[in-house]
UniProtKB/TrEMBL annotation:
Coiled coil: none annotated. It is found in: Vacuole membrane. It comes from the Eukaryota. V-ATPase is a heteromultimeric enzyme composed of a peripheral catalytic V1 complex (components A to H) attached to an integral membrane V0 proton pore complex (components: a, c, c', c'', d, e, f and VOA1). It comes from Trichoderma simmonsii. Belongs to the V-ATPase F subunit family. Keywords: Hydrogen ion transport, Ion transport, Membrane, Transport, Vacuole. Subunit of the V1 complex of vacuolar(H+)-ATPase (V-ATPase), a multisubunit enzyme composed of a peripheral complex (V1) that hydrolyzes ATP and a membrane integral complex (V0) that translocates protons. V-ATPase is responsible for acidifying and maintaining the pH of intracellular compartments. SUPFAM superfamilies: AtpF-like. It holds the Pfam family ATP-synt_F. Its main location: membrane. GO terms for cellular component: fungal-type vacuole membrane; proton-transporting V-type ATPase, V1 domain. This is V-type proton ATPase subunit F. It is a peripheral membrane protein.
Length: 122
């Protein structure tokens, strides 16, 4: 069970996705850049040229930050780092896979739904 201290300072969403998804979420107001010399963004735009290592690095960075409560990631992007997404088990930040305009959502690939199915013995 998570204590209040585990999530009380987690006030931001992070997003890793294609340009349309990230732009839409930024327009909705989730964008944030930390202050200081080592400024960190809470979003990463992924395209065909983005290296898998950059996606993994952003995923690791977002899941280690103490001010992020939810990490949204396009499912087709999560597929590129599926081993990282599937092995992530922490409650906070929560990782949610979302569809994109060009790639439909496949519930069979979703790591959260697979965990829920295992819990219920399906």
């Amino acid at each position: 069970m998570a204590s209040n201290a585990d999530f009380k300072d987690r006030q931001f969403l992070a997003v890793i996705g294609d340009e349309d998804s990230v732009t839409g979420l930024l327009l909705a107001g989730i964008g944030h850049i930390t202050a200081g010399a080592d400024a960190q963004k809470n979003f990463l735009v992924v395209d065909n040229k983005t290296e898998t290592a950059a996606i993994e690095s952003a995923f690791e960075s977002f899941t280690e930050r103490k001010d992020i409560g939810i990490v949204l990631i396009n499912q087709h992007v999560a597929d590129r780092i599926r081993h990282r997404v599937d092995t992530y088990t922490a409650a906070f930040p929560t990782v949610l896979e979302i569809p994109s305009k060009d790639h439909p959502y496949d519930p069979e690939k979703d790591s959260v739904l697979r965990r829920v199915r295992r819990l219920f013995g399906e």
